[in-house]
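Example 417, ligand adenosine-5'-diphosphate.
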Amino acid sequence: MTTTATQTSTQPSTRTASDPAPGAGSRTVLVINSGSSSIKYQLVDPEAGLALASGLVERIGEEEGAIIHRHGGQELRIQAPIADHGTGLAEVLRLFDEQGPDLSRANVVAVGHRVVQGGRFFSGPALIDDEVVDTITELVPLGPLHNPAHLKGIEVARELLASVPHVAVFDTAFFQDLPEAAARYALNREVADTYSIRRYGAHGTSHQYVSGEVSALLGRQDLKQVVLHLGNGASASAVVAGRAVDTSMGLTPLEGLVMGGRTGDIDPAAVFHLARVAGMGIDEIDHLFNRASGMKGLTGDNDMREVWRRIDAGQAQAREAMDIYVHRLVKYVGAYAAVMGGLDALTFTAGIGENDARLRAEVVERLGFLGARIDPGANTERSGRARVVSGSDSAVAVLVVPTNEELAIARQAVTLL
Ligand code: ADP
């Protein structure tokens, strides 16, 4: 086992408190995002909007695992095999004991679990009991990559942290009440209903949080908004007066925008074609569409910074890929403006949305017909704050709002207590 401690300047998405102790009397929530071979966690003070500690257990079940624990400007990295999720979480709790903050004194009032697929069952956070666990289990066929991993996280956390309530916060909840016209595919009704095929969306916690921040920042609750969550996964949502009316991800997170490794929208007949003509199997096509396409499949790299480097080096394919990416974004924003009958605010969030000023400028330039104008100075300013980046002459407010899913999960969790 190797252990290294370093001063860290890397900021998790939630602001890290320089004073790592929670304020006197303040409540905290331990937020857990359990993946198939990883556990991400954050100890959040939801009222103050602060992350008091954060970390990551990775490569669970592999030969060489790692745990990174950040607290009070320090980052501790441990390298050792981690047999399973239970061992990983027990190690994390040991690190809280050893390195702080001391959970027994942090007034942890809940554990908030991120759950990707809540199907038609959850339109908000749910206090986890055996019945909720059973429902998340029933939803595994709709979230085969995520829900089994969340269930593992929930199981071990309920064992190790038995004295506090556990709350599930669903990525799909914000889109549970989409109008039927947006949620239902024009697929044979009987088949669609028998197999629960409809648009569930994803990234809902982020879209809800970001659109709420926009309303607060602009001081208006009646806004017609488009939120572009552009990370490795990417999705757009249309939100009217705080309610989602459409979203780009569908039955699964494959639909919609061009992503790091996913195609986004593609004619489903491409599947028939690849099966018949190329002899590909379903799993092969699944991998092709979900992992080996998007920017990675178009340029060889899924990192936008690398795509821009290649564009600057004169690579025509990289420029073409960016054009495809921007085209899809512009198409969705235009479609959602039509769906909502107008557009008051357009917001960029997540890794690309928050950091890529050049992409924002290209998208907004193309939306000039809606009266959208970027302020080049505000757009290129480096800032971690939520801010308006449109010019004073813009008919559409354009914003950059850092997403903060952990804070949103923590805030939702405490609403149930
Ligand atoms: P995830 O979907 O994995 O949570 P993130 O929201 O963290 O993704 O976004 C990750 C992506 O953000 C990276 O793949 C990279 O393309 C992009 N990114 C990060 N920083 C920048 C930057 N300065 N400019 C352009 N893209 C960036």
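Summary: The chain is about 35% helix and 20% strand.
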